[in-house]
Structure formats: structure tokens, C-alpha cells
């Protein structure tokens, strides 16, 4: 299980623990994450990444002052990080949850992403971001990827988008058309 963390690594973090700081790796590389907020110093960027990971249904652990919505569920939240006493409890909390909340998209809609890649044509995509407002991008697509049941498309800038976040492509709603 690839576990990443956000926030400042606590002094109790064991050197041998293979949790890596999440530096922007694609979401398909993240199996779970831990959020360290023990001094209330999380950056806006870390909070946004944590919200994105939650949006993708990734299991998470929270360490810090409570409450800290939306990361205040008691079963996965602790005031302090105590790996020498509670590591099994932490790992059990992560493994007891599903890795994803991915909703498969229509196969015909997926095929259109493949066609846009082969034709090397730009596509206008409207998709759900972390905030309330949908995001838009016009870009060429480089690749598609399926990883552990999740489907992604890669933008020309190298970013990956999970396909169940797509609202529309070239003005046509996801799942409504075989062509865009």
C-alpha cells in the first residue's frame, strides 16, 4: 500500500516508515494518505490536495487538533501520531476502507478520449475540481490509463484526470453521446 502524507512530518515519525510526502504524484499512485496538522500549520496547497484525495475516495488518517472539518471523523483522527504504540491501529483503519469511490464511465464516452488522442485534436473538457465551481480546460490529450479499476486521461501538460470527474467534453455531457 502506497501511503503518502501531507503537512509537516512529526518528530515521532520513524525513519524506517515508508510513507512519502505527497509532492503532486498522480492520484492513481496514492493508495491512502495521512494528514499531519499537529501545530495547525497546514498550507492551503496541502488542504487542497487532501480534499482532492478524499474526493477520489482515498482512505485517510488525520493527526492534529480537532475538529478540523472535513477530517474530523473520530475513527480516523488522533491528536498525536504515536507509531510505536498505534501503528497496527493506523494501518487497520486504512485497510478497512475501500481505496476508491470510482464510478465507471460509459464505454463509448471513453472511446472518444482514445479517438481524440489518435487524431491529436484539442478537446474542451469541463470537470469537477475540489471547489464548488467546475473547471474547464482546452487541451490535447496524450494518453489514457486504467489503474486498479480507475480510468484516467493525461493532458498535454502531464496532469492526469480521473474520468468520472468529467462533466462534459466538447460541450456534450458525459455518457450522453458516442461522439464529441
Explain this structure:
This protein has 180 residues and is α/β, with parallel strands linked by helices. The protein contains three helices and twelve strands; from the N terminus they run E-E-E-H-E-E-H-H-E-E-E-E-E-E-E. It has helices at residues 44-55, 83-95, 107-119, and strands spanning 3-7, 20-21, 32-37, 60-64, 77-78, 123-127, 135-139, 141-147, 150-155, 160-162, 166-169, 172-173. It has a five-stranded parallel beta sheet. A four-stranded antiparallel beta sheet has the order 7-6-11-12, with no helix packed on it. The N and C termini lie far apart (37 Å). The model has no long low-confidence stretch (mean pLDDT 91).
Number of helices: 3
- Give start-end ranges of low-pLDDT stretches: none
Helix content: 10-25%
Give the SSE string: EEEHEEHHEEEEEEE
What is the SS-derived class?
A: alpha/beta
